[in-house]
Automatic annotation (TrEMBL):
This is Aminotransferase-like plant mobile domain-containing protein. Residues 525-559 are annotated as: Disordered. InterPro entries: AminoTfrase-like_pln_mobile (IPR019557), MAIN-like (IPR044824). GO terms for biological process: meristem maintenance. It comes from Escallonia rubra. PANTHER family: PROTEIN MAIN-LIKE 2, PROTEIN MAIN-LIKE 2-LIKE. Pfam families: PMD. Coiled coil: none annotated. Residues 97-452 form the Aminotransferase-like plant mobile domain.
Length: 640
């Protein structure tokens, strides 16, 4: 059906798929962004991130040395200037692909710097992605289009002026920059520049307006001056010629996220270092507010014609929320595709289809579909004084695709011009798959295995725990998740309680074969000497030391409370069991109805069936580990 050549952006094939938190695998037709690999040994090195100690981020003096200089609020008369020029040049801005970006500059996103720093803590410099306990995500070209209003189409931001009249206009702007000064003699001051051209009717007013917009809100490089290197871009835009601002802005964000990440890593060693950031980090904050419900304020209602960023105009951050925990626990609530949801007065892009479609790409194809293809294809991002790699296949679920093991993409070596050619290469002669707007993506079973194993290894490394020389099967069967004790329960597969670690007469007690009353009775008698695999006695009322034996009646009440806690946890598990079974049954039934006949159960091989059984058993063991960890934590709190 689809072009399977190397030029193809995506591929279609049958795979055993599972929801990102885990569950029972399903054989179905899935769609992936290329490149992918079939074996863990072929994957590039796992994205490494060093999680900085929390104490550093509680140090206000240290954080004050991080300066977000690229986050610029609108000037006093900026909106007035925009409103004056919009009737005259609004159609030109639309033709140039900057209309929403210009209008969006009149809105204000109040700073939540702690959120940006917490995200940077989880940034991977090698892949330009955030590495969360529950998966990978990142800011993409799609976010630049929707939140920033920038175009993925057009000439490079480094394109030179090649016509005589354009070169003369550039010379005039440079001359004006020298003449427009502040009282202190500073040339090109932004406030003096606006006061000089605002409402003047000058023949350069439009170019001067766009130059200020670019210097202050798109590519800020200094606090006070209009930059000379944006004049060619402003001249092109004033003629309605498109410039690909989206990749350039995203490149600056990647660059500064990596800079901030490196600063956080070395800050504990060098307490006097400063970090100046010039990228428009309000876009990263908007990205987070769109995707992390626990961290986002209640959005404003959009008025007709307003840009997406107006939803967050002048809203304050949510107080009383632990940002780190909200991020690390967001596996179930993270919004992979926030822009596909219906919002009043928000016009959904044409590449968000109601049903899946295959579209043939050619030179006459609509720009919306090709824009979507550029968002989904790996490339080199060329900005002003920066170049970064773009790897959307690592975050395929953000585009409605399924996720498999990501393949390696080599960097484009050479000049910025060669890198731009890499970004601007043709997408012709392939079939483009457009996923349905409300599709819920899954991951392959091998991806889930790979991710859990790598996160487990990373957790051990960060905690200074040496890895045991366990066999692959043993490690998979005994520790398949990070566990809720470390705050990572969102990657634990939800399962029903079907086995128990309790031992009776040398054999395992299969609680699914007992009644609810028998299970509770068993749990009330269960010793606490084995909790989460720890064979040392946690508490034994018959083997206490002399000081323990002289405790008062209050200790008896505490012991009763421990038993009641144990009973309550068991009761909660039993209450969750029917609900979870129903949820799994409903999910399976929906998938069964949607699955075509070629994905019938007869196609599942014996090895696939064995893997499904393994996954189910792994999930059950993980669930029990978390139950006993909760019991241990509760008992320790009561004994203190």
């Amino acid at each position: 059906m689809a072009d399977k050549s190397t030029a193809a952006i995506m591929e279609e094939r049958e795979e055993l798929m599972v929801s990102p938190p885990g569950g029972i695998p399903t054989l179905r037709t899935a769609h992936f962004l290329k490149p992918t690999v079939n074996s863990q040994k072929d994957t590039p090195p796992f994205p490494f991130f060093f999680k900085t100690k929390t104490a550093i981020f509680n140090d206000k003096k240290a954080l004050s040395r991080v300066q977000f200089k690229g986050r610029r609020y609108p000037q006093k008369d900026w909106k007035k200037w925009v409103d004056q020029l919009e009737p005259l040049y609004g159609t030109v801005w639309k033709k140039a692909g900057v209309y929403e970006a210009v209008m969006g500059s009149t809105y204000q996103t109040l700073r939540h710097n702690a959120l940006i720093i917490r995200l940077a803590e989880r940034w991977c410099v090698e892949t330009n992605t955030f590495v969360f306990p529950w998966g990978e995500a990142t800011v993409t070209l799609e976010d630049m289009m929707v939140l920033g209003g920038y175009s993925v189409w057009g000439h490079s931001v480094l394109a030179p002026l090649n016509a005589k009249d354009l070169i003369e206009t550039d010379a005039s702007l440079n001359k004006a920059r020298k003449n427009v000064k502040t009282g202190g003699g500073l040339s090109g001051n932004q406030y003096a520049w606006m006061n000089h051209f605002l409402g003047s009717g000058h023949q350069l007013e439009h170019e001067a307006f766009l130059s200020l917009w670019l210097s202050r809100y798109v590519f800020p490089t200094s606090y006070g001056c209009v930059a000379q290197n944006v004049f060619p871009i402003a001249i092109y835009l004033s003629r309605g010629i498109q410039i690909a601002l989206a990749p350039a802005v995203l490149a600056s964000i990647y660059r500064d996220l990596s800079l901030l990440k490196k600063w956080t890593n070395c800050n504990s060693e060098d307490g006097n270092s400063e970090c100046d950031l010039w990228a428009p980090f309000q876009l990263v904050q908007l990205w987070a507010w769109e995707r992390f419900p626990a961290l986002s304020p209640q959005p404003n209602a959009l008025k007709c014609g307003e840009p997406r960023s107006a939803r967050w105009h002048r809203l304050k951050k949510v107080n009383g929320v632990d940002v780190s925990k909200a991020i690390d626990y967001a596996g179930e609530s993270f919004e992979w595709r926030p822009y596909t949801k219906l919002v009043n007065n928000w016009v959904i892009s044409k590449f968000y289809r109601e049903t899946e479609e295959w579209v043939w790409v050619d030179s006459n194809m609509n720009k919306e579909a090709i824009s979507f293809a550029r968002c989904c294809r790996d490339s080199e991002l060329v900005g002003i004084n920066c170049q970064e790699q773009y790897l959307p296949h690592r975050v395929a679920m953000q585009f409605g695709f399924d996720q498999d093991l990501p393949g390696y993409v080599s960097r484009c070596s050479g000049t910025l011009e060669i890198s731009w050619e890499n970004y601007n290469r043709s997408i012709g002669n392939v079939e483009l798959y457009m996923p349905p707007r409300l599709h819920e993506s899954d991951v392959t079973v091998r991806y889930l295995d790979w991710w859990k194993e790598k996160m487990l290894a990373l957790e051990d490394e960060m905690n200074g725990i040496p890895r045991l020389n366990r066999s692959e099967n043993h490690s998979r069967m005994t520790r398949t998740s990070l566990g809720s004790i470390q705050g990572y329960q969102n990657i634990v597969p939800p399962v029903s309680l079907s086995i128990c670690n309790g031992v009776k007469d040398g054999g395992a007690i299969e609680e699914d074969k007992l009644t609810d009353g028998e299970i509770l009775n068993h749990k009330s008698r269960k010793s606490v000497r084995e909790v989460a695999g720890d064979n040392q006695p946690l508490y034994n009322k018959h083997n206490r030391d002399s000081s323990s034996s002289t405790t008062d009646v209050g200790a008896g009440r505490k012991m009763e409370s421990i038993e009641s806690v144990e009973m309550r946890i068991a009761s909660e598990v039993l209450k969750e069991r029917p609900k979870r079974v129903m949820e799994n049954a409903e999910r399976s039934e929906v998938k069964r109805m949607l699955r075509s006949s070629r994905n019938s159960i007869e196609k599942i091989t014996s090895s696939d069936k064995t893997r499904i059984l393994e996954m189910d058993l792994e999930a059950q063991i993980t669930r029990l580990e978390n139950i006993f960890a909760r019991a241990k934590a509760a008992k320790l709190n009561l004994l203190i």
